[in-house]
Amino acid sequence: MENAKGTPVWVKRGHDTLLEEILISMTVTNEGERALQIVSVVIETLEERFITVREVTPPQLPHVLDPRTSVSFAVQKELIDDSVAITFIGVVDALGRRHGLDRQQTQRPVEESWNLPTRVGVYRRKDDPEKMVRAFAAKDRTSINQRVIDTLNRKPQPFASRAEYSQPSSPASGAGSTPPDPQSEASGNTHPEP
Questions:
Q1: SS3 helix, strand, coil % of the chain, rounded to 5?
Q2: Could you give the CA distance from residue 156 to residue 138 in angstroms, rounded to a whole number?
Q3: How far apart are CA 47 and CA 62, in angstroms?
Q4: Angle at 180 between CA 106 and CA 148, to 5 degrees
């Protein structure tokens, strides 16, 4: 199971114990009146004073969604497990617009994923053995961008966070409010699935 995309777990089914994989299953539906091309999954996380944006492209993407159609795909749960605070999960379309999944529907599966086995490991950096990093082998094409939080313009609020997460301190004055999520035509759901 070394080359498996999902996290391998032993599952008891009746009298049998089987080796299965845990993946995060997503379904995205175009509820609008125009076609929409979905190009990747976006997971935005917050840690210390950094926002990390991971764009993942499973084999089913890019995909053109005609009105009232949907596409389903699965991504590795480690993309979520590698995070301590998640501010956004959704997809990005061909025009670069982000379409978020429902935060309340997504919070429970994220927390369930954190409680299941994971392939995320903690390693020492070769160039600085005092520093530890979390890592895993990505099985889908993934790009990672990280930037310092600009607390004057946007203070991201995580919808799911672990106990070790603490909100970064903001400047005493001039802190802005979180802008509302833009209206999107795409919607979807996500859940861990063995």
A1: 10, 45, 45
A2: 26
A3: 29
A4: 80
Cis peptide before 180 (omega within 30 of 0): no
Residue with token string 């596409």: 71
Q: Tokens 């020492």: give the residue.
A: 124
Per the CB < 8 A criterion, the answer to whether 58 and 159 are in contact is: no
Block residue for tokens 């409680």 = 115
Alpha helices in the chain (DSSP H): 78-81, 103-114
**Of 113, 115, 119, 114, nearest in space to 136 by CA:** 119
What residues pair up with 192 in beta bridges, in sequence order? 24
The CB density around residue 23, as the number of other CB atoms within 10 Å, is 21
Minimum mean pLDDT range among 71-75, 85-89, 159-163, 180-184? 180-184
Length of the chain: 194
Distance CA 41, CA 119 (A): 20
Amino acid identity of residue 120, one-letter, is V
pLDDT digits (tens, 9 = 90+) for 35-54: 999 999 999 988 877 888 88
Q: Which of 10, 7, 87, 15 is nearest to 47 (CA)?
A: 87
CA distances from 160 to 48, 78, 86, 101 (A): 15, 15, 5, 13
